[in-house]
Amino acid sequence: xxxxxxxxxxxxxxxxxxxxxxxxxxxxxxxxxxxxxxxxxxxxxxxxxxxxxxxxxxxxxxxxxxxxxxxxxxxxxxxxxxxxxxxxxxxxxxxxxxxxxxxxxxxxxxxxxxxxxxxxxxxxxxxxxxxxxxxxxxxxxxxxxxxxxxxxxxxxxxxxxxxxxxxxxxxxxxxxxxxxxxxxxxxxxxxxxxxxxxxxxxxxxxxxxxxxxxxxxxxxxxxxxxxxxxxxxxxxxxxxxxxxxxxxxxxxxxxxxxxxxxxxxxxxxxxxxxxxxxxxxxxxxxx
Length: 287
Known about the structure:
The structure is a single chain. With 287 residues, this protein is of the alpha/beta class. The protein is built from twelve helices and eight strands. Strand 7, helix 10 (240-249) and strand 8 form a beta-alpha-beta unit. The radius of gyration is 17 Å and the shape is globular. The relative contact order is 0.16.
């Protein structure tokens, strides 16, 4: 059964999250078009085993977490710290994918004593220059037409391979991913969730687009905690070169390059990632 969300009142405002498990804490931060449910999927995909307490967050502007006052990654990082305070958690690792990367880096910079490790998967860590796909503009229209969203969601549920082909253009890799008994269902679940409560995912997504395209340069050399970067070499959304450059600047970083991996490399290379993330977090867990 999927963990259920709760609204937590923090010193900096309300945060929606789902909390489950026992052990050292890991905060999961979703990407664009996400919410706590996709943070749950991120945790399940990257770290299938137990031994950790997970906090799957809806970042500001997604589902139940308001955007006002937390538009910038710095503010979102402070909100994560306030959430840890409200939950009584002293330290946490951060597991972030795609658009959650900026918040994760700011958390490690601004609240280093609260962070015991950082895992960045296909993460936005430098200004993006790629054009927005036509699909995003279509989703904005769909958000105003719930009946159309429901119809397309039912179609995607019947024919998951069509949606998968848009995310994985390599036909062989797409078929292998969908045929995997673990990766296939996870990818399908992610794609279907995007079209559920679509209008409540758009404010955060539009904000992420703005933040990812403004000029920013973080002093990442100050991040001394252990960092694992995971990135597909043919990522069409966030360039692989960004993670390679970041790894070279971080004092204590490792880079897992997913050969031939697209932006959804978390699913196409699921088992390789799980093995590496599990080893990384267990090696650096507190105590």
